[in-house]
Write a structure and sequence with these properties.
heterodimer, A: six-stranded mixed sheet, 14 strands, 38% helix, B: mainly alpha, two-stranded antiparallel ribbon, disordered N terminus
């Protein structure tokens, strides 16, 4: 039996010496990709008919003062504090909105429904929400629509017919383009790059990797993908995996993408401890707080995500225009104050825009 | 684990081999991996990579020392991963709040000893199976951690707090801790009354009682000791990176238990050594690194570990049948 254990390990070592060369990047899914144009020209809008809901007999709110309640997934965390800030900024700018945020202290769908129910009863003109569950939240939102309340979602969607519009913070191809473009800029357009992801089957990460492979093939063909490693959502495992990549490839490795907010800081730590800051770039999806030590130390130049302040700001502008009756089903774009013209996608969604890149100059403005 | 008799020659060697059989298998596996993978890609044997193999899983090895003692005493603890997460968070919070680093290091360890002594007392005196008590503890610690931190990460710890990043004499401090604690624990298990009492209680509780050992007190003691090792592991876990994740690392308790079992600790209690579990933790790090160097999917790590557990347990069963 002991010999068997030993034998199995030896056999593994021998068999695996002949690894297969793969064309697509490991860790991506097999779904069709839709890479954006290299210069960022928006893709021709595919016209999808409006699939959102409509309030029943809303009163004429055009230009009148409205009361709005924002019920995020939970309150008291940095991320939703930031969306609230955006909502209040927009309300102050508009001047005819009385907005406030209220909601559960835990991301709990039952409590969120209770909050929404209470505000519907107390009477508001508009509801903003980020759903804890897309299906479970639908009945209470439909109830709001039946009472003539305007309903707009952001961050986390409901089923489309339970709200009027949804502000979508980022699409897979947009995130992929930002990640690849940043990496290409930092490594000078060519060199070996590797990926640290959660698992090969995590849906969002797999989608992003597939879109990154498609975009890189079209726009940055000299970036040479070396390997994708899994690290689950484990800080120390991510660090070990990234360190092993650095040890394995030596000077061949010019950059590491972190695909989760666990993998990105751990990869940055691995590069820091390997004393390879400046030699190996780390670009990834992460929250600003987790990356501040590395951005502050100049080891990481850019962190890709969206700006939650802008997200709340856009949602408030959309709600005002829905209430005014100026944003109607079938619109192809909407003007959102300082953010300018935002594109309508997928029938009843509004795309926030290109992802936000956090860097040394702006990262300390965020706390989430 | 009988003490070697003063016999000489073949029988002495045979006794040594049967006493440390599993440890030797694990050690040879590590050596074999170094040879095979080093031949395929010499960078595997670079100083940096060897350092990261030994340091990468040091905290798992240290937690596995305590886990081995628990299993040798005939119990199990499935809450150790959550406990390590809680310890890391307490340590990080204290360090960020400006307490001296020695307080940020020792207070969480004392906390871990107290929590586990409580668990041990529940197990010993109420006779609730340890898997049930520690499953409950797992939920309490995980839930408490998420509630207390609200999912926020801790960052901004002072540099002097980062003990796992220090490198006395060029070797990561985590490795020093792993080697030092393993040696101390091995001597403790072999040469102290308490160490031998752990084996006795795990082998046959009533026989141990008849021999004048207080099994309840031994169980409380071994859980408290396990708390100490989990505490040290938690501090190393907390100080490896500049951010502390508020979620418990997935499956950490399973990795720790697996290290103990593959290191030769019998799941039925009564036998095993802490050297084996440390070697097994190093072997995991070695396999994990080797898979990347050989371009093999990380999925294999889980499959290989599963195969190794089965092989080890079967070998243990076979040994017991032969001994009977």
């Amino acid at each position: 039996m002991k010999k068997m254990t030993l034998g199995a390990i030896l056999a593994l070592g021998l068999f695996s010496g002949t690894a297969l060369a793969q064309s697509a990047w490991t860790g991506g899914d097999d779904l069709p990709t839709s890479p954006l144009a290299c210069d960022g020209t928006p893709a021709a809008a595919v016209s999808v008919p409006y699939d959102g809901g409509a309030p029943t007999n809303p009163p004429d709110r055009n230009g009148k003062k409205i009361t709005v309640v924002d019920v995020p997934k939970l309150i008291g965390i940095g991320y939703f504090n930031a969306t609230t800030k955006g909502i209040l900024d927009a309300a102050a700018e508009l001047g005819n909105v009385d907005a406030k945020t209220d909601g559960p202290t835990k991301a709990n769908i039952d409590e969120q429904i209770t909050f929404l129910d209470n505000y519907i009863t107390s009477g508001v003109d508009g509801i903003l929400f980020a759903a804890n569950d897309p299906v479970a939240i639908a009945p209470v939102l439909k109830k709001a629509l039946e009472k003539g309340i305007n309903v707009v979602g952001y961050d986390a969607n409901s089923t489309p017919d339970a709200r009027q519009w949804f502000v979508n913070q980022a699409q897979f191809n947009g995130i992929a383009k930002a990640l690849v473009d940043q990496m290409a800029t930092e490594v000078g357009g060519e060199g070996g790059v590797a990926i640290v992801t959660s698992t090969f089957t995590t849906p969002n990460q797999a989608r992003w990797i597939a879109e990154m492979a498609a975009y890189a093939a079209a726009c940055h063909p000299k970036l040479k993908w070396l390997e994708t490693v899994e690290a689950q959502e484990d800080n120390n495992l991510s660090f070990n995996q990234a360190t092993t990549l650095i040890n394995k490839y030596g000077d061949e490795l010019k950059g590491i993408w972190g695909m989760t907010s666990v993998a990105t800081p751990a990869s940055a730590e691995a590069v820091t401890q390997a004393k390879a800051c400046g030699k190996i770039a780390v670009v990834g999806l992460a929250t600003p707080n987790a990356m501040k030590p590395y951005v502050g130390a100049d080891c990481v130049k850019s962190v890709v995500l969206w700006n939650p302040v802008d997200l709340g700001y856009a949602a408030m502008h959309v709600l005002r225009q829905v209430a005014d009756g100026t944003l109607k089903p079938g619109a192809t774009s909407v003007k959102a104050g300082k953010l300018g013209e935002l594109q309508v996608i997928n029938g009843s969604e509004i795309l926030l825009g290109a992802p936000y890149v956090f860097n040394k100059d702006n990262i300390n403005d965020f706390d989430f | 684990m009988s003490a070697a008799s003063p016999a000489i020659g073949r029988s002495n060697l045979h006794r040594f081999l049967s006493g440390y059989g599993q440890e030797i298998v694990v050690l040879l596996s590590i050596v074999a991996l170094f040879i095979v993978v080093g031949a395929v890609n010499p960078r595997f044997l670079s100083d940096n990579n060897i350092n990261s193999i030994f340091a990468g899983n040091a905290y798992i090895a240290i937690a596995a020392i305590g886990m081995s003692m628990i299993i040798m005493a005939g119990h199990i603890d499935v809450s150790v991963g959550a406990l390590i997460g809680v310890i890391a968070t307490i340590a990080g919070t204290l360090a960020v709040a400006g307490y001296p680093v020695w307080i940020a290091w020792t207070v969480p360890i004392l906390f871990a000893i107290m929590v586990n002594a409580g668990v041990g007392a529940l197990v010993a005196y109420t006779r609730i199976p340890s898997i049930v008590v520690t499953l409950g503890m797992l939920s309490i610690l995980k839930g408490g951690l998420i509630t207390a931190t609200a999912g926020e990460w801790i960052s901004g710890m002072p540099v002097e707090f980062m003990i796992a990043q220090m490198r006395p004499f060029g070797i990561p401090s985590a490795v020093w801790f792993m080697v030092g604690l393993t040696i101390v624990a091995a001597l403790f298990m072999r040469y102290t009354d308490f160490g031998r009492a752990i084996y006795a209680v795990g082998g046959n509780m009533e026989a141990a009682r008849a021999a004048g050992i207080n099994p309840e007190r031994t169980v409380v003691g071994v859980f408290a000791l396990h708390g100490f090792f989990a505490g040290v592991a938690g501090i190393l876990f907390a100080t490896q990176l500049q951010v502390i994740q508020s979620t418990v690392p997935p499956n950490l308790e399973l990795t720790v238990i697996t290290a103990s079992v593959i290191g030769g600790v019998s799941i039925l209690g009564g036998t095993g050594t802490v050297i084996g579990s440390t070697l097994a933790a190093i072997l995991f790090a070695c396999i994990g690194s080797a898979l990347i160097f050989l371009n093999v999917s990380a999925y294999w790590l889980r499959a290989v570990l599963g195969l190794m557990i089965l092989a080890t347990v079967l070998a243990d069963m076979a040994r017991r049948r032969r001994a009977r």
